Structures are given as C-alpha cells and as structure tokens.
## 1
Amino acid sequence: MSRILVRGGRVLDPSTDRDELADVLLESGRVVSVGPDLRVDDVEVIEAAGCWVVPGFIDLHSHLREPGQEYKEDIATGGRAAVAGGFTAVACMANTQPVNDDPATTDFIIDRARQDSPARVYPVAAATKGLEGRVMTEMAALVDAGAVAFSDDGKTIMDSGVMRHVLEYSRLVDAPVITHAEDRTLVADGVMNEGAVSTRLGLPGNPGIAEDVLVARDLMLAEFTEAHLHVAHVSTRGAVELIRRARDRGVHVTAEVAPHHLTLTDESVTGYDTHAKVAPPLRSEADRDACRAGLVDGTLDAIATDHAPHAQHEKEVDFVEAPPGMIGFETAAAVTLELVRSGDLTPLEWIRRLSTNPARILGRPGGSLGEGKTADVTIVDPERAWVYDPAKGCSKSRNSPWAGKSLTGRVVATLVEGRRVYDVERGPLT
Ligand code: DOR
C-alpha cells in the first residue's frame, strides 16, 4: 500500500487533544506519524494548507435503502455520498425491504458494502422482527453476522415489556439499543411540530411531549436493566433535560442530534415544503436552542445525519402524504460548522461529536489520528463557500432543505484506511 503525506494542515484530534499545524504520514492503512515538517521520500503528498485534517467522520444514523428501495439510494451511492460528506463510516438503519432482522440480510449488506461502498458500513439490525415491536430478533446471531447495534428506527417500540427484554438481551451481546423515541399514540396523525406554526398552516401537529414521554420511559428502562441506551435524533428541550439528568444519575445513555434539529425550526415548513418534513419533526426555536446547548455541554454526544433519501415523486405530493426524511451526508459538515463560527463549539469539540464520540459509542475503530490508528482521515476547508446542488451530489435522491443554499465549509478530501476515496475536484474516486 502506498504512503501518503497530508502536509501543512491544522491537525485536530480530539482523542489526543491535538490542535496544531502538522503533517500526517499514512502507510499501510495506519497513521504512522504526526508532527511538524515530516521529511519523507517517495510519498504521495496531499497539500492541506488552510484546511483542517481530522479523523474521518462517523455517522451513527443513516438509511442506505438497500436491499429493497434502490430507487431512493443504494449502498454504492450512499457510500459515495458519505465520503463526499467526509464520513469514513456510516451506520445504516434496519428499515430496508426486507427489514434487516436476520443474519442473511446483515450478511448481504456487509458483502455489498465491501464490494461497492468507499465508506465503511455498519449495519444496525432490527430489535424486533419486521420492526413490528412484538418479537425480538436473534441478537446474538445478528451480532455474529456483523450488526453493531439494534434499533426499530422509523418506528417506536411501544410495548414497554418488549423494550425491557431488548435492553436486557443487548447487554449479553454488548451492543447499544438505539431508540426512535416518539410515542405513537401522542404523535397520532401529526405531520409537523405541534405549535403556533402548525395551527397557522392548518396541519396536524406532533407534540414534543410524544418524544419526552418515550425518552423518559426508555431512560427508566435503561436504568433498570443497566443496558446501553442510545437516543436517536433528539429534537426537544424536554428530551435533552431528561437525558442530562439521567446521565447525572449514572444511567448508561448516549444521544445524538441531527444537523437539521440544530439549525432549523418548524418555520421551515411554511410554504408546505415537504423537504422540511422529517421524523421527529423540526421543532420550536426553544427546542432547537436546547439541542444546541445539549450538544455543547456534552449531554448530546454526537452529530448524526439521519440521511433519509426519498425519490422526487414521493416528495412532490401534498405535505400530509409525503414521507418524512431528508438527505444529509453531503451537507452535515457545512451546516454544523455554524456552531463553530458562532463560538458554541471549538473546532476540536466539533470533531469530537462527528468522529471520536461516535466511534466510542459503537466501539469501532476511528475517531483518532493517534500513531498506529486506522488511517481514516477527512480534510475540511472551513472557509470554502459553495452552493449545494443535490443534482450534482452523489446521493440518488435530492430531498434536502439546503438545496440551492449557499454554504460555508466543505470537505475537500476523504481517506479510508489510507486510501484516497474522495476529492472535491474529482468527486468519488471509486
Ligand atoms: O424522517 C425520518 N425518515 N425519520 C425516520 O425515523 C425514518 C426515516 C426514513 O426511513 O425515511
């Protein structure tokens, strides 16, 4: 394997608290050395002056749609979109067709990813058969096949007894349970956040309390079972507060927040833009601010995209009918850099939430540029201005609320296991 020298960038490594101008030498898929002015012969050089050189982003939450809905996305296009967004690894949710609830499907995803995806792909298996919330999946067999976590994401496990058993068994296989926390009886037919905006638009509301109630239940069950609960896409002030208090009590809980819940509110639905429809929904300003504060103080450990591709014809319908979800790999860095520019997060803390913490939560490699660590590296130009055009992106789908928007900050190169897989001028290199 060839040697690569990433030269002259600002190296940001939360695992070692390193923040300095340095060179990074990669060889045989590993970080070999990091330091100023490394002298190396016979090496491919990537010039990184003016850029940040960071451990590759790791996305805890995405939908790659394969098997079964390849018209929206597949593992190849999803993997290319991931590396274009700086993600060297992505966890993919189980709501495929068929559902990833048996080892053969997990195997298929891993095989396909090995062949087709420039990013590492970590399958999240269903917690219950068919995502029906009734019968547990065979967790040990799924972990043996390569599942990294369990979740009925997209659907909530409403039966508390089932959730208890899922959490108990998850301890035996040492994998987190990722909860999609929306009480379906409170969501009812809600299609956007319940509040002044839903009233004005005449759309049925989905109240924040639907999330708070389920987060409270799952935290209590996690405390009772002593299992690792991971709360997906936190969107309410109440949920942030509940997680903060549970963490203080010693509950084994981790949590993620999506770029859209950090930066947008339900006002984006004005105009009935179906690209602003997502589950859980975009909330109030107070909720958004609480999510930002939660991310800053560490209550929310990670930024995760919830990349959820849908075809144009599916989104070009009445707001009530449109499926929820938005793509997010290629915009996540630029959108969340706003928190760095506002002074809420230092660059190092930003990377911690995009890379080091997700690696820790999943117990996978990455999240570090320490010597000897895997050479998954992302290079970001934090000042680069660009206009996002999903049609020119790598995803098969275009459902983004940032389509046509001017953004600042762009991933310029991505390396997985020491191999360059994306370059902003040339696109994906696989
Ligand atoms: O908005 C969403 N879309 N939220 C989910 O939980 C599921 C996802 C999807 O699969 O489209």
## 2
Amino acid sequence: MKVITTIQELQKELASYYVANQTIGLVPTMGYLHEGHQTLAKAAVAENDVVVMSDFVNPTQFGPNEDYEAYPRDLERDARIADEVGVAILFAPSVEEMYPHQGGVTFEAGPASKILCGASRPGHFNGVLQIVTKLFQIVRPTNAYFGQKDAQQLALIEMLVRDYNMPITIRPIAIVREEDGLAKSSRNVFLSETERQLAPNLYKTLQVLQRNIASFNQKKAIEQIEAATKGRVDYIELLSYPDLQPVTSEDTQVILAAALYYENVRLIDNIIFKVGE
Ligand code: PAF
C-alpha cells in the first residue's frame, strides 16, 4: 500500500486506472480507523479495481469550540490497518495541501443540514460537503463508501451527488457495533469507564422506541434515554429518510436518530427502518 500526501502524486498514481476505465473506490475518513472503517474498506475492495482511502481531519467541519485539535490521530496505525484490508492508496494530505487558499468558495448545505446534528453544530455540514466535493474532484471515484452511523451526513452527500449531477455511486454501509451494541466511533476513546458501560443503553433505548413507534413521544423519549444512559440528550427525532422531513402517512422509510452528551464526548446513533417492520 502507498501512503500519498499530495494531490499531484495521487492523480499520477490513478492515471492508469482512468485510462483503462477501471473502477475506483473511495473511502473518505478522518483516520483513527476502527472496525467501522474496515467494513467500509472491505466493501470497497470487493467492488472496485483499486481503493483509495483518505485520512484527513478536516478543519472546516469543526466549530470553534469543537474537538479539532483533540481529535485522535495515528497515521502509522491507520496505514497498517488500511493495508491489512486491501486499500491500495492511503491519501493523507496536510491542511495546506487541501486548503492552500484562504477566503475562497464555501458551501451552504441547505435546510437538511440545520436539523439533527446540524442544529448544535452550525456550519458542520457545509465543511463536510466542501471536503467531500474536493475529494470527489481529486479522486474521481466510481463508488464512494459512507457509514450509516452518520445518517444525516450520508443523506446530505446523496443530495449533493443528485443535485450536482456527480457521476458517482454512493454506497451506504450499515452501522458496525461493539458486542454490547455501542456504535463504533473514533470518539468512543473519550468515554469514561462508567460512561462506556452506560453508553450502549442509547441503542437499546432506540430499539425499544422503534418497537413502540406508533406511540412515539419526543419528551418521553428524552426521559427514557437520559434515565438509561445518564447522559444529556442533544436530540431525539423521528423523521422520514433520506429526505429528513417530518413523517407523514405517505412515508415508508424513517429514521430514529439521537445524539447524547457525556462529559467529554457527544455520541450519535440511529435506526433506519421501514414503518410497519
Ligand atoms: O465521516 C467522516 O469521517 C467525515 O465527516 C468525512 C466524510 C471523512 C469528511 O471529512
């Protein structure tokens, strides 16, 4: 596996794949890889002639009081893991390489970026769509792989590709969980021992709410999650998916999505399901 840090070198490496019309899989990540990323990469390896994984903690998607500096990083370990699962190129550029100009064109991700995680992370999805668009332009992948854990991000990227006619297939990959049900996340390392024990109750409560979806009540749902997790709910919402609108009787697929604050970390989780299942 090659670790490449410049756009020029990456495009030189990919040139023969474009010429031969071969398929390129892109797995965008912010590094500190876990099993969730490995699952994305394995799917990409199975479905493409070559796989590029990006490893870049994108500053434009972090707010001023968020954990950009503290976000865990370990390129050496990432390279080992990516290599093991068959990634051909790990693209790990510097911030200067990705953002050489100040004050240029920025992104406005639209109304679906202002709810759920976007409500407490203003501008976050503008930064996500900015970096994802740059990666799509740089790599020109056939398929791009995103986890369903970040369901709002996934929905917005689907909208981006649809609305801007990008010739890329988005491949959603199911949430990978620890044995006790906690969704895998690079940020789980910030949980205290007690929080780590209680955190799986977020998913367990979502499952209970799903089973009783006909009587879903947001206020009661907050109480249930907080009692079970001892965390503070940022949001719990039931929306249509992937358009993220209030549910109507016409909607068949919905998302039950929640975010929860602990002392040093904010966890998200969701269940996407068909109504009546
Ligand atoms: O999901 C992530 O890790 C990031 O938001 C992404 C898609 C790699 C963009 O920085």
